From TrEMBL:
<dbReference type="Pfam" id="PF00891">
    <property type="entry name" value="Methyltransf_2"/>
</dbReference>
<dbReference type="GO" id="GO:0032259">
    <property type="term" value="P:methylation"/>
</dbReference>
<protein>
    <submittedName>
        <fullName>Methyltransferase</fullName>
    </submittedName>
</protein>
<dbReference type="InterPro" id="IPR036388">
    <property type="entry name" value="WH-like_DNA-bd_sf"/>
</dbReference>
<feature type="domain" description="O-methyltransferase dimerisation">
    <location>
        <begin position="14"/>
        <end position="86"/>
    </location>
</feature>
<keyword id="KW-0808">Transferase</keyword>
<dbReference type="InterPro" id="IPR036390">
    <property type="entry name" value="WH_DNA-bd_sf"/>
</dbReference>
<dbReference type="InterPro" id="IPR016461">
    <property type="entry name" value="COMT-like"/>
</dbReference>
<dbReference type="InterPro" id="IPR012967">
    <property type="entry name" value="COMT_dimerisation"/>
</dbReference>
<dbReference type="GO" id="GO:0008168">
    <property type="term" value="F:methyltransferase activity"/>
</dbReference>
<dbReference type="InterPro" id="IPR001077">
    <property type="entry name" value="COMT_C"/>
</dbReference>
<keyword id="KW-0949">S-adenosyl-L-methionine</keyword>
<keyword id="KW-0489">Methyltransferase</keyword>
<dbReference type="InterPro" id="IPR029063">
    <property type="entry name" value="SAM-dependent_MTases_sf"/>
</dbReference>
<dbReference type="Pfam" id="PF08100">
    <property type="entry name" value="Dimerisation"/>
</dbReference>
<feature type="domain" description="O-methyltransferase C-terminal">
    <location>
        <begin position="108"/>
        <end position="318"/>
    </location>
</feature>
Length: 336
């Protein structure tokens, strides 16, 4: 008979140790620096302006965690960190981790208060303001947030571009488009499509710059608007990625209804999120994301695929189905 051990409890309770080591490495631009060339302890200590007391433990902790390699005293990136954490690489996803380091890390420190009060825990006013409107008011915070949204969604966006039956449609609209990464990946994969990125006026410059960088300005254009106030662009396919989870039930239903109204007969709505599994036992990331909405928003929460299908069907959609994308993300496809 095996005797229970406390290892998993301790590892989870102290998981912030390893998390903060990775976030600090990103903050120091360690992975970008090592992308230029491997380096030994002394060189990295000098280049990153580290104190000798903690430098070796810090770097070797990253080795033991599998985020760095060390050969004959030379530290270098792993294949994974070279691809995703070098800010000069097009596959860089570090922006979401930068947001986590500077904003989410302290906010999650007040999770207990959020669970007891049901109120967001950000530092803006008394928590009654919408976190999104506050982020959008500050240029630096806006740029970081927009980049973070692209980083966290990039891989799933590629899956949508490959998996959805785009050959059956001609136009699409990406709602809450941010930098337009989803629209760009879809357009690059399917030259017959034209698309619209829909978001607030302040986001236009980020979208237009990214689209022009990919030479897609002839097929992708931007429409400014507030999706709670303005009509959604009409298109054969409407995409809502990581949008619905930020709002309460009433606003979720309102956005679904607006999408239904903007689609033609036979048109499709694609909702993708870190969908919680229907039994609420397996997709830990989806459940934690819902807690993130608790500490960040007034009424946002994540949901199961079954929940989403029921809301879509209540709005008039038919033929709903769920497809896994990657990691914790899945998409719900509904036909009008």
């Amino acid at each position: 008979m095996s005797i229970p051990a406390p290892d998993r409890i301790l590892q989870t309770g102290l998981a912030f140790w390893s998390s903060k080591v990775l976030l600090s490495a990103l903050e120091l631009d360690l992975f970008t620096e090592l992308a230029k060339a491997p380096a030994n302890l002394n060189a990295l200590t000098e280049r990153l302006k580290l104190h000798p007391r903690g430098a070796q433990d810090f770097l070797d902790a990253l080795v033991s965690m599998g985020f760095l390699e060390r050969h004959e005293g030379q530290y270098q990136n792993t294949e994974e960190t070279a691809l995703f954490l070098n800010r000069d690489h097009p596959s860089y996803i570090g922006s979401i981790l930068e947001l986590a380091n500077h904003h989410l890390y302290p906010v999650w420190g007040r999770l207990t208060d959020a669970i007891k009060s049901g109120k967001p825990q950000h530092d803006f006013a008394d928590g009654n303001e919408d976190v999104y409107s506050i982020l959008y008011e500050d240029d630096d915070k806006l740029a970081q947030f927009i980049s973070a949204m692209s980083g966290v969604s990039k891989t799933s966006n590629g899956c949508i571009a490959r998996q959805f039956p785009w050959s059956h449609f001609k136009t699409f609209a990406d709602i809450g488009t941010a930098e337009g990464d989803l629209a760009i990946q879809v357009a690059l994969s399917h030259p017959h499509l034209t698309g619209v990125g829909f978001d607030l006026e302040r986001i236009a410059r980020f979208f237009n710059h990214n689209v022009s960088q990919h030479a897609l300005s002839d097929r992708l254009h931007y429409v400014s608007g507030d999706f709670f106030v303005d009509p959604l662009p009409r298109a054969d396919v409407i995409l809502m990625g990581h949008i619905l989870h930020g709002w309460d039930m009433g606003k979720k239903q309102f956005l679904i209804k607006k999408a239904f109204e903007a689609l033609p007969e036979g048109g499709a709505l694609v909702v993708y999120e870190s969908l919680i599994d229907d039994d609420r036992r397996e997709n830990t990331h989806g459940l934690l994301m819902s807690l993130n909405m608790l500490v960040e928003t007034q009424g946002g929460f994540d949901f199961t695929g079954a929940d989403c299908c029921s809301w879509l069907e209540a709005a008039g959609f038919s033929g709903t189905r769920i497809e896994h994308l990657q990691g914790a993300d899945s998409m719900v496809i509904a036909i009008k």
